[in-house]
Amino acid sequence: MAEITRNCAGGAVFFGDELFLLKNDKGEWVLPKGVIREKQSPREVALARVSAEAGITARILAPVGDTRYEFYSQTRKKSVCNRIQWFAMTADHRGYRIAFEQGFVDGDYFPLEKALEMISHEQDAEIARNAWAVCRGEKAE
């Protein structure tokens, strides 16, 4: 069991039928997300992290599920569990800015099918599928 648990929030951001993905410094294709700090709502954090990590101004359509994963933090010398609340989001324009200063090495909008093949973690792919259903006016699972 993890020694530290962090509550996080993030977004699956679509522009048209394309999903935005970031590539982190481990070579993983991921969705933007971040830790919820005191007095912040998951919605606020999700929007702020999409803006900070990808330079995208998005709007939330609906919550689309939760994921969790554990990893060993080299800096803390402890195991950490991240619990993430995810939101379906849409962007008003296709522009973005990768936050290289935060350790991201690449990113772009990709057609959904290609994005689903690229996403490094299956649970994130499931979130993306749920978000696409919301964006298309369907009910999230």
Q: What would your notes on this structure say?
A:
- By secondary structure, the chain is an alpha+beta fold.
- The chain has a single domain, classed as Nucleoside Triphosphate Pyrophosphohydrolase (Alpha-Beta Complex).
- It has helices at residues 42-54, 112-118, 122-135; strands at 4-15, 18-23, 29-30, 33-35, 58-73, 78-91, 106-111.
- Strands 1, 2, 3, 4, 5, 6 and 7 form a 7-stranded mixed sheet that branches.
- A hairpin with a 2-residue loop joins strand 1 (4-15) and strand 2.
- The longest helix is centred in the last third of the chain and has 14 residues, at 122-135.
Unreliable residue runs? none
Q: Can you tell me the CATH superfamily?
A: Nucleoside Triphosphate Pyrophosphohydrolase
Structural class: alpha+beta
Mean pLDDT rating = 93
CATH hierarchy, class: Alpha Beta
State the end-to-end distance.
28 Å
Question: Which features does this protein show?
Answer:
single chain, 141 residues, alpha+beta, Nucleoside Triphosphate Pyrophosphohydrolase, seven-stranded mixed sheet, 24% helix
Give a quick precis of the structure.
This protein has a single domain, classed as Nucleoside Triphosphate Pyrophosphohydrolase (Alpha-Beta Complex), CATH 3.90.79.
